[in-house]
Amino acid sequence: MFALVVLVLASWGLRRIWPAKGLNWVDSQSWKEAIDRNSEMKLLDVRDAMDYEACHVNGSINISLGRLPVLWKKELSPEDSVLIIADGDYERRSAARILRRRGFRKLYTGEGKGCA
After folding, report:
1. Per residue in 12-32, pLDDT tens?
2. How far apart are CA 110 and CA 92, in angstroms?
3. Model confidence pLDDT, tens digit, residues 32-88
4. Which of 11, 62, 93, 113 could be disulfide-bonded to 20 (CB atoms 3.0-4.6 Å)?
5. What distance lies between CA 73 and its chain's CA centroid?
6. Which residues contact residue 55 at a Cβ distance below 8 angstroms, ignoring those fewer than 6 apart?
7. Looking at beta carbons, which pairs linking 24-28 to residues 24 or more positions away fall under 8 Å?
8. CB proximity list for 60: less than 8 A, separation 6 or greater
9. Which of 79, 81, 80, 78 lies closest to 101 in space, CA to CA?
10. How many CA atoms does the CB half-sphere of 52 hold within 13 Å?
11. How far apart are CA 13 and CA 36, in angstroms?
12. Residues 15/89, Cβ–Cβ less than 8 Å
């Protein structure tokens, strides 16, 4: 039983740090330039509504990480280029995994929330 608990905890820990396939990392200056160049790029903010209201990039779409598996179809299409905005690396990778399983292939993220 102890070995099972250790295995579960180890796989949970690895999941938190393991890279998300197809997620392209860019620095904050590069993603701001990418937004300016590519007006077709969707900005997806996966933080909760309170954090989004306190500080967000104009034109970004707010779908919290917990609701993303259900609500993504309302605002996004698998053909879209999507820049994921989140508080931390775990949230960025989780959002990318969710979208990747739904057919998204042009996924980007970087440090920062788009706020000063």
Report:
1. 444 445 456 678 777 767 666
2. 9
3. 676 666 668 899 999 999 999 998 888 889 999 999 999 999 999 999 999 999 988
4. 93
5. 15
6. 113, 114, 115
7. 24/107, 24/108, 24/109, 25/108, 25/109, 25/110, 26/108, 26/109, 26/110, 27/110, 27/111, 28/110, 28/111, 28/112
8. 43, 44, 45, 52, 85, 114
9. 78
10. 17
11. 36
12. no
- Please report where in the chains the tokens 């197809």 appear, as a residue: 22
Copy the structure tokens of residue 14.
């690895």
Which residues contact residue 114 at a Cβ distance below 8 angstroms, ignoring those fewer than 6 apart? Answer: 43, 45, 55, 56, 57, 60, 85
Q: How many CA within 13 A on the CB side of residue 114?
A: 25
